[in-house]
Write a structure and sequence with these properties.
The chain has 354 residues and is mainly α. The protein is built from 14 helices and 5 strands. The mean pLDDT is 91.
């Protein structure tokens, strides 16, 4: 029987999840989602669906013709009633609104994604001449301001790994037993993130069969579904081998036999659990930096770039499709390298004193 991977399972879950969301949207939306299916992931389509549901909910309060209507009763003709000023109000609405009694907020990235989702949506129906107007092109897409990259320095990395190895020394009772039960797993997981720069979603999706000690590589499934071998060094190898010895003593729940990393419930560990354990350990090392799995990825990318100076290599290993994405993240470091180049070349020999 063929092995069903984590990513195969997630595709099925996302497919059912998308159907549930689509059932809450106007029926004409299904044409758009069928059209984008070949070129987008299921997760992306779910994000689009959620974004559009927020938009349609806003329209119910914005357009006079929809005052007595429900979400499902919105028609494609109503899209032509929307003007650019309405979308500007929508952009303002997105900054803070309530959904099912809970406050929802969006900063720059959230705003940009929702406006881009809306642009794609309108473009499809306008291109197919199903609507007469496309006001989404008349409003500006929110600008994303670059933020300082938060990462651990070399000393903090060493402190983090040392702490995970020896945190049990200061614990007693149930906390000590829990720590001893998860020590090798946590050390292997965080060492792997720090030593390869893989995404947290790629990490939790790893199967034990994806680890190749002959070549010291792991097979990861990148965004978009492409597979790639990412190589690791001796420290990662040791941490993984130590954990795999412990893993042999775990009897997993049915359907989770292939997972590399298990939760304490003997199931494949989830993204949220990894985020929580990274936060837990990192908070013992630094209180001034909010460290997440993505910050460990940035830590690896920084170290690799400092060692090699090769932005294309960093982009390839991190799985960035566009090297400009990588360059944007490490622009400050490139500036430092350019500055150091000013002192690297001597035009004339220094005259000897005396």
């Amino acid at each position: 029987m063929n092995r069903v991977t984590y990513h195969d399972q997630m595709k099925v879950e996302y497919t059912f999840q998308l159907r549930e969301v689509l059932d809450t949207l106007p029926d004409f939306c299904r044409d758009f989602f069928r059209a984008i299916d070949p070129n987008t992931s299921a997760k992306t389509r779910i994000s689009y669906a959620y974004d559009l549901r927020v938009f349609f909910t806003f329209l119910l309060t914005c357009l006079p013709s929809l005052k007595e209507k429900t979400l499902k009763e919105i028609s494609i003709e109503n899209l032509d009633e929307v003007q650019a000023v309405d979308l500007e109000e929508y952009e303002e609405y997105l900054k803070a609104y309530y959904h099912k009694g809970e406050l929802q907020t969006n900063e720059e990235r959230g705003l940009k994604r929702k406006i881009c989702s809306l642009r794609s949506f309108y473009a499809y129906y306008y291109r197919h001449e199903l609507i007469r107007t496309n006001p989404s092109v008349l409003i500006d897409v929110p600008k994303i301001h670059d933020k300082t990259i938060i990462r651990l320095d070399a000393g903090e990395v060493a402190m983090l790994l040392d702490y995970i190895e020896h945190a049990g020394d200061a614990l007693t009772g149930q906390k000590k037993r829990y720590y001893e039960k998860t020590r090798e797993r946590d050390l292997a997981l965080i060492t792997l993130l720090l030593g390869t720069g893989i995404r947290v979603s790629e990490c939790v999706g790893l199967d034990v069969e994806d680890v190749d000690f002959r070549n010291n590589g792991i097979t990861v499934t990148r965004k978009g579904g492409n597979q790639m071998t990412v190589y690791f060094g001796e420290e990662v190898e040791k941490a993984l081998r130590d954990y795999l010895e412990v893993r042999k003593g775990i009897t997993p729940l049915a359907g989770h036999e292939h997972a590399l990393f298990y939760s304490t419930q003997r199931k494949r560990i989830g993204v949220q659990a990894v985020e929580n354990l990274v936060k837990k350990y990192a908070s013992e090392i630094t209180t001034s930096k909010k460290i997440t799995p993505h910050k460990l990825r940035s830590t690896y990318g920084t170290a690799l770039y400092q060692e090699t100076g090769d932005i294309y290599l960093v982009a390839d290993v991190l799985g960035h499709k566009d090297v400009n994405t990588t360059r944007k993240h490490y622009a400050a470091m490139e500036e430092d390298r350019r500055r150091s180049a000013a002192q690297a070349v001597r035009l004339r020999e220094q005259k000897k004193q005396g």
